[in-house]
Design brief:
The protein has 572 residues and is an alpha/beta fold. It is built from 16 helices and 19 strands. Helix 3 runs parallel beside helix 9 and helix 9 packs across helix 14. The longest helix is centred in the middle third of the chain and has 20 residues.
Length: 572
């Protein structure tokens, strides 16, 4: 195997890692395709090329790759050039490389005034330090005036788990105060919720996306999720970060409930203070929320907030490429990653404002492109391969969700999806991390192919973060497609240099300081041996599936098994 130093030297010789990178035109023609030797590390993803692709995608001139932002077209054009150079064919709309994704971009555009009122006493709330809100309602103003504030526990309605936090209460026009994660996150022996939601592992009911959706189904005017770092899986700087009051959404499907006027997060201590002023104790309410007989608690407090809203409709883009299968071209193995990042934010300690998403997910896309190159260079597989670069993942998996609503290939004929999202740059590992244990037969395939690399399988170290529900593969999983996710945020790798302690140190530092922040930037010091392992592993899994006849199944306990079973006849 070629050493990383030799690879970096080769890359530098091609002007990829030094200061001589050609200027990157934005929203114009893409830069020339990377000219790299074709015989580097035959049988492996090429690390120098992965680094070079990630560097271009995280260049400051792409302004953080925000959907609809000044860097979108440059990023999309560059990806098309890479797909084309890899040897893929276009798989978008009307023979093109792209699928248009119509997004509604809303932003609270003026002073946001918010307060709570109890028994004639008004407490102003401070944006950023106390709360963070956005809206997905395309109106000129977002306003909630003296709406009753109701504590609804974890905000979960899950009949199949025998759980209902709402008990038929009339919550129309009210603001729901709810806990993050799901009812057994902090459960102890004797609590009704203990083990009912999978223990410490977060279910979809713990995700903020679900909670906003459920608030809409309840007819709420607003929703405030109480932030708690361990329960959310990230700190307040992530929950409150981003452009002030910005949101992206898809147009509502016919018959869908209207979303809350305002939705977002409130700091845990701030929420505890509001609850205390109303005569309650948040810790006692949290314990009550772990009982089946919990009912919504009227805090006899009202919430008010208002802000002008700017509304714009954006035609963003998914980038799609394919390699047609030799004998079963109507059966597909798909690979994915997201091209968007978080655009421009507030300055960090070094004055940097561009959140370039170099690891999340420029490097993941670079790995996917390497997988495509290897497939094109080798014997054509029996089944077809689909390669997808999604938009608006950071805004709620919107690009992949739109694709799932408007697929270009039948999802019933999609064998599996393998998604790259946030690879680590610290060297080779002794293991691979499984995200979503107990979901599908894909975990057996993962273990068998990882063993051929000399790697074992570790279960995700932070299941409470709900990462199975936080990447683009989930949009396809909800439609029954078996999935695997490669994501370095799922738990500490057992690093060949430094062991699990080194893996945990990097994960803690990255999550606390760089996740969705400007310091997630490309670096010439990256050691991509581990990223190469992940790319090679997904290539091997894809090759096995693309040349076989198996249709991996969901395990009987999975919530997606029934969805897949409904389309069995189309596969057999």
């Amino acid at each position: 195997m070629m050493g990383i130093r030799r690879k970096m030297a080769i890359a530098a010789a091609f002007g990829l890692l030094g200061g001589c990178m050609a200027p990157l035109p934005i929203a114009m023609a893409p830069p020339p395709p990377l000219q790299m030797p074709d015989n580097l590390d035959a049988g492996h993803a090429d690390m120098a090329r992965m680094s070079a692709v990630a560097r271009v995608l995280s260049d400051d001139r792409l302004m953080g790759r925000a959907p609809g932002g000044p860097g979108e077209q440059g990023a999309v054009d560059y990806l098309i050039a890479q797909f084309r150079e890899a040897g893929l064919a276009p798989a978008g709309e009307n023979g093109s490389w792209v699928q248009a994704v119509p997004l509604v971009h809303t932003q609270l555009s003026g002073p946001v005034v918010a307060s709570v009122r109890h028994q004639g006493s008004t407490r102003p709330l401070t944006w950023g330090s106390d709360y963070s809100l956005n809206t997905s309602v395309p109106a000129a103003e977002a306003r909630i005036a003296d709406a009753p504030l109701v504590f609804v526990g974890y905000g979960v309605s899950a009949a199949e788990r025998g759980w209902d936090d709402f008990k038929g209460a009339d919550l129309k026009g009210k603001v729901l105060l709810m806990l993050v994660n799901d009812p057994d996150f902090e459960a102890v022996a004797g609590d009704d919720s203990d083990g009912r939601f999978g223990g410490i592992a977060m279910t979809y009911y713990g995700r903020w996306v679900y909670k906003f959706e459920e608030a809409a189904r309840q007819g709420a005017a607003g929703v405030l999720i109480i932030h708690q770092s361990d329960a959310a899986g990230y700190g307040w700087q992530v929950a409150s970060g981003g452009a002030r009051g910005e949101n992206f959404s898809l147009d509502l499907l016919p018959g869908a409930p209207r979303p809350p006027v305002l939705q977002g997060w409130i700091q845990g201590p701030v929420a505890a203070g509001i609850v205390k002023s109303a005569g309650f104790d948040l810790d006692i309410l949290k314990r009550a929320a772990r009982r089946k007989d919990f009912r919504p608690v009227d805090l006899h407090t009202t919430f008010s907030a208002s802000s002008p809203v700017s509304v714009e409709r954006i035609a963003s883009q998914n980038v799609l490429g394919k390699l047609d299968g030799r004998s079963r071209p109507n059966e597909f193995v798909s690979f994915g990653g997201h091209w968007d990042a978080h655009g421009v934010g507030k300055p960090d300690a070094q004055g940097r404002t561009i959140r370039a998403g170099a690891l999340d997910d420029a490097l993941g896309l670079a790995a996917m492109i390497e997988v495509a190159r290897r497939f094109v260079a080798g014997p054509r597989p029996e089944r077809s391969l689909l390669f997808t670069a999604w938009t608006a993942e950071e805004s709620g998996l919107l690009g992949s969700e739109y694709y799932a609503q408007h697929p270009t290939v039948p999802l019933a004929k999609m064998v599996a999806n393998l998604t790259f999202d946030t690879l680590q740059p610290n060297g080779a590992t002794n293991d691979v991390v499984l995200i979503g244990k107990g979901q599908s037969e894909m975990e057996t395939v993962l273990a068998e192919e990882a063993a051929k690399q000399g790697r074992s399988v570790s279960i995700e170290g932070h299941p409470e973060r709900g990462l199975f529900f936080r990447a683009d593969h989930f949009s396809l999983a909800k439609r029954g497609v078996p999935v695997l996710l490669s994501m370095a945020l799922a738990g500490a790798y057992d690093m060949k240099a430094g062991g699990r302690a080194a893996g945990e140190q990097w994960l803690s530092d990255f999550t606390a300081n760089c996740y969705h922040q400007p310091c997630d930037a490309w670096s010439p010091t990256w050691n991509l041996d581990g990223a190469q392992q992940e790319a090679d592993l997904f290539f091997a899994i894809g090759e096995r599936l693309a040349n076989g006849r198996a249709w991996p199944r969901w395990l009987p306990a999975s919530e997606f098994a029934k969805v897949r079973a409904a389309s069995d006849a189309e596969r057999h």
